[in-house]
Structure to design on (391 residues):
């Protein structure tokens, strides 16, 4: 399917890319809001390929449990490039990467014109795993990447490193209790703020992770944040038109009232709008909407029911903290007549729980909490009503 709109966000990202690398950018937003689709669209179709060399690393595609997995996920062994020494190899890779699309597509670690991992010779990767200490391994990794990026810079081009689902690294430690992420961030700060070698975009759907990053001292003044939210009303209605053309080939025509009904029900989350339009091939609009609401409501009720049988705990500040059903209900009740709360209206462990369950989205920068979608907002209110928990 073609990509729809997001011109405002595209402009914001491109304006970052056009300036000298300075900060690490975090792209965040509610689940399924279209963060990954946006960054892929920019990298594939909106970049001047003569000026930039992008790498798109998606940690969600890999199972990352330790430092070795992390290293493997960054690199791809490139057998088509031969060289006498690492130095020569780095030069050849840089030349390959900057020489244009045709050459780029002939290398195996490249997908749809974008390198999906950083090319590396077999011997170098093997050497990395032979080091005993994790800390030595990652230092070698950083030196390799830094050299490759600075070689690319020599051609007057700027590397762009996109790290999708970066939160997958959050539980990995280098040695003892030294977190890998902290060390990796230091390296990324070096590439941006210190050396200005490359643009870094970290994408995450985990808003608690974004809150953690936002409050961490080592990234203060070294990072900035770009929100990719669900579509607002106007864009959502246009997206519905776009989808009826793309998916239904205009075989079904929706009235203005029907389109508004869809938005009022599910909101502007792309994936939900796609779901609704696709289901219209076999169901009526009312059937589709009531099915989606029923499904979302059932999930919330199931979560609430668990409190009657087990102690529910959530990880908060590295400690397991018990969350009480009454507090969760109290928080959810606040959404009766509004769809946004201030973060401090809900106790932290309670919103941690609700965010972990993908019921609420936390925007740590705006300090607000809101349901993950408009559909979720309706489902919260219907669930409370079903359980006789509203006054
Ligand atoms: N602007 C758009 N035009 C067309 N399709 C879109 C657009 N934005 C998102 N989509 C579609 O919606 C789906 C979800 O988008 P995507 O995976 O990018 O969301 P995400 O925010 O990265 O999700 P997650 O929170 O799981 O990481 C994808 O199938 C994608 O193709
Ligand atoms: Mg994503």
């Amino acid at each position: 399917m073609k990509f729809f709109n997001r011109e405002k966000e595209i402009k914001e990202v491109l304006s970052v890319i056009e300036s000298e690398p300075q900060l690490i950018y975090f792209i965040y937003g509610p689940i399924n809001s279209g963060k990954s689709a946006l960054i892929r669209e920019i990298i594939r179709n909106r970049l001047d390929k003569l000026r930039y060399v992008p790498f798109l690393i998606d940690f969600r595609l890999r199972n990352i449990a330790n430092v070795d997995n992390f290293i493997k996920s960054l690199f791809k062994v490139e057998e088509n490039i031969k060289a006498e020494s690492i130095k020569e190899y780095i030069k050849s890779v840089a030349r390959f990467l900057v020489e244009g699309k045709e050459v780029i597509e002939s290398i195996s670690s490249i997908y749809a014109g974008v390198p999906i991992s950083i090319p590396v010779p077999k011997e170098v990767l093997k050497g990395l795993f032979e080091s005993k200490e994790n800390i030595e391994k990652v230092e070698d990794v950083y030196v390799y990447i830094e050299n490759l990026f600075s070689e690319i810079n020599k051609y007057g081009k700027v590397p762009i490193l996109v790290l999708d689902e970066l939160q997958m690294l959050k539980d990995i430690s280098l040695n003892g209790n030294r977190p890998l992420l902290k060390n990796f961030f230091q390296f990324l700060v070096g590439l941006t703020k210190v050396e200005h070698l490359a643009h870094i975009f970290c994408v995450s759907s985990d808003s608690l992770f974004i809150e953690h990053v936002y409050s961490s001292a080592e990234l203060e003044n070294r990072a900035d944040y770009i929100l990719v939210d669900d579509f607002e009303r106007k864009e959502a209605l246009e997206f519905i038109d776009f989808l009826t053309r793309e998916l239904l080939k205009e075989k079904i025509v929706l009235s203005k009232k029907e389109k508004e009904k869809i938005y009022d029900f599910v909101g502007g989350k792309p994936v939900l709008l796609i779901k609704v339009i696709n289901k219209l091939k076999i169901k009526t609009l009312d059937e589709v909407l009531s099915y989606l609401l029923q499904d979302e409501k059932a999930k919330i009720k199931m979560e609430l029911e668990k409190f009657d049988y087990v102690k529910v705990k959530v990880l908060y500040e590295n400690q397991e903290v018990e969350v009480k059903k009454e507090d969760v209900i109290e928080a959810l009740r606040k959404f009766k007549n509004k769809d946004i709360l201030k973060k401090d209206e809900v106790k932290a462990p309670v919103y941690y729980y609700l965010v972990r369950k993908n019921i609420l989205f936390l925007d740590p920068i705006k300090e607000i909490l809101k349901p993950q979608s408009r559909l979720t907002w309706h489902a919260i209110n219907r669930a409370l009503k079903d359980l006789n928990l509203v006054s």
In short: The first helix runs from residue 7 to 18.
